[in-house]
Backbone:
């Protein structure tokens, strides 16, 4: 089956304080339609840079990114704009990811409007439906983004990403800033949406417990390079590389739980 | 608006709003309160103030009503002040946003143009334009705006430079928003608050520049202006100081009112942060 | 033993425009010297308000009722020399324009009136204490030159510099990735144990709370709804909310939630 996303030899360097370093160094991976690939590593491993490269917010110094069979960096500006409906992103900080002056309705209206989905009269109804699909009440549409809770805001961010029915969503530490008690609900929501819409996820996280719960496969990054890859449960239950072992060991354990 | 409510909760805000409110009301009601042309002769020349109830502030050298002059002058001053400031802020915000968002060569070019306008003192620029083109209200407004837009432009550009790196701008790009829409619909409205903070300074400066131009005889000759009244009063300063004092006080009150509203707004904005 | 801290019926209200919001409602607990208490709550539960109240850092316009007593101290505590604070955002608690060594010196100067060479030496010792290698290099660095984990270690050094007997950590590891978080947790545990500090560790993560706390307090919507030892609370939660908190923990050996890809392709795909 043709991969939805094929990343080959991706490299990106940055210069900071006089010296140059590779944030991403020769990274290659593929995502199949409907699959969840996790990109895991600690901070500085390059995973967020990979996310921004995949979303075409940054240009690579080397490598190719093929999305739905087309070279992402070979697209013209207008082709890219149209293609963007097919791949979307959810950011870590839900407060920073929205225009501070926006309402929920306006934030969700933007993707519909930009890609010409539905006429003006239809859009309030489409927005209401979208909110329901992420488990929120349609009444929330009227509220200002900064007024709603963090968990609700991240659901709105997910709704915004789903508005154009993309085939790939990049989740860049999307659960890291959410209270741990709310993460499991968001995971269930993500899995539910995946089952219904067959959307693939690039799930970026430093928390291997989350990765193991939601991902089919995982790629472990360290200092911009891939150090291990494979099915999520296998890699995490039997880690080979020291980086993976450190990440597994760092997951907080619940003391006092029965049988543990 | 919540900001307005908070504004009138501060002492500066109340004082400023009252002051400007009175002046604004006077300006609006000028044709009602003083339907006769203020440049027409209303009574005996050089009548001292507080003698005659129909001419409370007296008359000038030609017998024109001083109070009518003050009230009609308010129209000119406030109109020029507000229009010039609006023009300067609008032009400055648009150019500053373009420079900050586009970066590179466009940024360089726009900033050098801003430098050029900024190095010439605002008053001299206005003087030059009015001398060349001719004195009319429109030209005066344009002249003042030409000198005042660089300030807002720089402030807008600085805000945009920092806003440009924020996640919500990246999010707008990932949704497929066009750059022009991102710059003017997402970024500019969020860059405005510090730009608007300059407004009171610009309004005050505009009022004073207009008064100075009128004082030099370069204002609109068909209108009564406080500056013009000051110029007239100068020739009889010893004999009738009130002819200079009253328009002077009017100028002070107008600028003070604008300043107090500005300070009150800053206070009100700071208050908001304290409770969040 | 005389408790270090005794909170009795503490309630805090904020005034927000015309409304009054109750952030904390009738909080009561004791803290013994050297004891480690973990306070677990979601955003909006009032946990940060509690930290601020204990340090006398509540904003203007808050109404406080109830008592915060310090029996073992016998007087009102002073921040720095009696209580050390570690906050969530390491960039927020450090002055961006000052070298970090100087910031530690400032704490020493303000609280222990140490000066000059003595203060500098002590600052270097403290940087060592928080397990940062090459103390001199770190001391000469500005906050933006350090990583998140390094900054948080410096913040901890500032917190313990004046020798307080009590540390309040409010979401001290929430902004860090799991590997750094584990290191900082180990550091806090080690320092608290070696210096005999009492600790209040505030978090939204029940696993962290259970690993560091000798006792756990569960905060929900401003109220204390449950308190007890981690083992008890986790194996036998009484309140529904506590039960929900415990069941929201994602264990590494639980069965994955995701469906195998082949299934998904067979059933869901177009």
Residues:
């Amino acid at each position: 089956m043709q991969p939805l996303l094929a990343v080959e030899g991706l490299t990106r360097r940055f210069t900071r304080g006089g010296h140059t370093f590779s944030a991403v160094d020769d990274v290659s991976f593929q995502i199949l339609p409907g699959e969840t690939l996790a990109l895991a590593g600690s901070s500085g491993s390059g995973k967020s840079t990979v996310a921004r490269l995949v979303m075409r917010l940054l240009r690579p110094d080397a490598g190719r990114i093929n999305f739905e069979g087309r070279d992402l960096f070979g697209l013209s500006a207008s082709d890219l704009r149209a293609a963007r409906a097919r791949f979307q992103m959810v950011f870590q900080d839900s407060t920073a990811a929205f225009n501070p002056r926006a309402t929920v309705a306006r934030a969700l209206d933007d993707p519909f409007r930009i890609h010409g989905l539905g006429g003006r009269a239809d859009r309030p109804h489409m927005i209401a439906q979208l909110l329901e699909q992420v488990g929120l009440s349609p009444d929330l549409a009227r509220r200002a983004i900064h007024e709603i809770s963090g968990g609700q805001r991240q659901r709105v961010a997910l709704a915004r990403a789903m508005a154009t029915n993309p085939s790939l969503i990049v989740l860049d530490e999307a659960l890291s800033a959410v209270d741990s008690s709310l993460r499991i609900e968001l995971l269930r929501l993500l899995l539910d949406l995946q089952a219904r819409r067959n959307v693939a996820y690039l799930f970026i996280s430093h928390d291997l417990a989350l990765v193991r719960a939601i991902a089919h496969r995982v790629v472990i990054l360290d200092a911009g390079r891939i150090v291990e890859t494979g099915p999520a449960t296998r890699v995490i239950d039997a880690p080979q590389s020291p980086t993976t072992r450190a990440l597994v060991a760092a997951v907080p354990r619940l003391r006092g739980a029965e049988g543990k | 608006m919540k900001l307005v409510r908070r504004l009138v909760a501060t002492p500066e805000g109340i004082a400023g709003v009252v002051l400007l409110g009175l002046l604004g009301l006077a300006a609006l009601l000028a044709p009602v309160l003083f339907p006769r042309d203020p440049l027409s002769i209303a009574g005996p020349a050089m009548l001292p103030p507080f003698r005659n109830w129909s001419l409370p502030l007296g008359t000038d050298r030609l017998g024109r009503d001083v109070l009518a002059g003050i009230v009609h002058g308010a129209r000119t001053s406030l109109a020029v002040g507000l229009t010039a400031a609006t023009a300067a802020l609008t032009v400055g915000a648009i150019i500053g946003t373009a420079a900050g968002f586009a970066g590179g060569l466009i940024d360089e070019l726009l900033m050098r143009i801003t430098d050029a306008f900024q190095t010439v003192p605002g008053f001299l620029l206005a003087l030059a334009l009015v001398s060349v083109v001719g004195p009319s209200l429109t030209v005066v407004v344009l002249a003042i705006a030409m000198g005042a837009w660089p300030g807002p432009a720089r402030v807008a550009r600085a805000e945009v430079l920092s806003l440009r790196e924020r996640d919500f701008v990246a999010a707008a790009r990932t949704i497929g928003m066009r750059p022009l829409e991102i710059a003017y619909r997402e970024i500019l409205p969020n860059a405005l608050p510090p730009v608007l903070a300059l407004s009171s300074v610009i309004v005050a400066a505009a009022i004073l520049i207009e008064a100075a131009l009128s004082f030099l005889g370069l204002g609109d000759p068909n209108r009564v202006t406080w500056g013009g009244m000051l110029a007239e009063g100068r020739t009889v300063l010893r004999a009738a100081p009130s002819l200079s004092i009253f328009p002077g006080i009017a100028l002070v009150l107008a600028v003070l009112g604008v300043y107090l509203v500005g300070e009150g707004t800053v206070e009100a904005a700071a208050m908001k942060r304290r409770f969040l | 033993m005389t408790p270090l801290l005794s909170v009795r019926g503490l309630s805090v209200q904020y005034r927000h425009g015309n409304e009054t919001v109750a952030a904390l409602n009738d909080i009561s607990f004791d803290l013994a010297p050297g004891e480690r208490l973990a306070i677990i709550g979601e955003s909006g539960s009032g946990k940060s308000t509690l930290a601020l109240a204990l340090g006398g850092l509540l904003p203007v316009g808050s109404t406080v009722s109830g008592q915060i007593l310090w029996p073992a101290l016998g007087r009102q505590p002073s921040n720095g020399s009696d209580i050390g604070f570690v906050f969530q955002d390491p960039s927020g608690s450090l002055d961006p324009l000052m070298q970090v060594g100087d910031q530690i010196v400032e704490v020493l100067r303000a609280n222990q009136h140490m000066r000059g060479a003595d203060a500098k030496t002590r600052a270097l010792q403290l940087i060592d204490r928080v397990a940062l290698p090459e103390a001199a290099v770190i001391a000469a660095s500005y906050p933006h030159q350090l990583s998140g984990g390094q900054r948080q270690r410096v913040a901890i050094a500032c917190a313990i510099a004046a020798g307080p007997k009590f540390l309040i950590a409010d979401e001290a590891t929430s902004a860090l990735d799991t590997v750094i978080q584990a290191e900082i947790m180990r550091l806090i545990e080690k320092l608290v144990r070696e210096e005999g500090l009492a600790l209040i560790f505030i978090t939204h993560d029940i696993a962290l709370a259970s690993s560091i706390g000798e006792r756990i307090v569960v905060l929900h919507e401003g109220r204390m709804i449950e308190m007890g030892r981690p083992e008890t609370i986790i194996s036998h939660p009484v309140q529904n909310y506590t039960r929900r908190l415990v069941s929201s923990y994602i264990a590494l050996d639980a069965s994955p939630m995701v469906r195998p890809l082949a299934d998904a392709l067979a059933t869901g795909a177009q």
Observations:
- Residues 4 and 16 of chain B are 12 Å apart (CA to CA).
- Residues 2-92+120-145+191-275 of chain B form one domain.
